[in-house]
Amino acid sequence: MENNIPSLVEKARNGNRYAFSELYKEYYSPIYRFVLIKTRHKETAEDITQSVFGKALQSVSRYKDTGAPFLAWLYTIARNLCIDYFKKKKDLLPGDPDLFWQELPDSICVSKDGRLEDMREAVARALLVLTDEQREVVSLRFIEDRSYAEIATLLGKSEEALRALNHRAMKEMRKVLPSYNFDD
Amino acid sequence: MDKEEAQFSKLLGPIRELRPSKTLLARLIGLDERKATTWHALLWYAMSPVVAVLIIFLIKASHPVELDTESDMMAMTTESEAISKQVDVDLRAIEEDNVSELGLEEIYK
């Protein structure tokens, strides 16, 4: 699929809806996770993700290939829509971590005293202490398993800045995460 | 990826399993999935009389001898009456034979 992306983007630009649907299938989930980590609210994340692709569909004909991946363009739309969302909902606190952890997969656990310990609530609280910028980097680095070079092109930041952001993010998360042995 | 990063990657990596629950592709692309389902249902309902007629036609085709209701009923009644009359005749003959064998003609006269 990765190799077909430029061709699909070109077709989508020319009004081919099937090509756009293929791009949508490819990128819907990563954009959703990116927005979910930022908003920490499932339904809001789904609505914003829908809006991201709605806007992308409207403006794909005007999309200009700047050398950055198409996904970077989608991330930019997603970030802007998240900013708009939080501006409009100033009175609304970001997602409640007491509820958000329930949305996380059961497989988030660590080994403790020979048995598996559910870490979803701890992880949700750890994500809460991060700044929005740190959350973006953590999301792309640890959840999407991207390299710093890839994240740099996706977010338009230097690798050094991203490393520093991620280092600070890990330090903050360590403070609130129990000292379990993650290696097991 | 250093050791600390690897630990966080292992801890947070499972979040990659998360998928949105809504299927919004159809709405975006202009083919609403629910509409598609409705259309399939409507098509099926529209087709069902045609299917029913076809089934009846096939049953009829596999049973070329049909019952013509009224005339067949009349024939069956006539045949039934004839059998009934024949049974009466046979019973009378048996009765007469028995009377003869027992020498009871005088009594029956």
Task: Summarize the structure in words.
The complex is a heterodimer of chains A (184) and B (109). Helices cover 65% and strands 4% of the residues of chain A. Chain A is built from 9 helices and 2 strands, in the order αααααββαααα. Chain A has helices spanning 5-13, 17-39, 42-59, 70-88, 97-100, 120-128, 132-143, 148-155, 159-176, and strands spanning 109-112, 115-118. In chain A, strands 1-2 form a two-stranded antiparallel sheet. Chain B has 2 domains: 15-66; 67-109. In chain B, 76% of the residues lie in helices and 0% in strands. Chain B has helices at 3-12, 25-29, 33-62, 69-102, 105-108. The chains are: A mainly alpha (184), B mainly alpha (109). Chains A and B meet through helix 2, helix 3, helix 7 and helix 9 of A and helix 1 and helix 2 of B.
Task: Provide a brief overview of the structure.
The complex is a heterodimer of chains A (184) and B (109). With 184 residues, chain A is mostly helical.
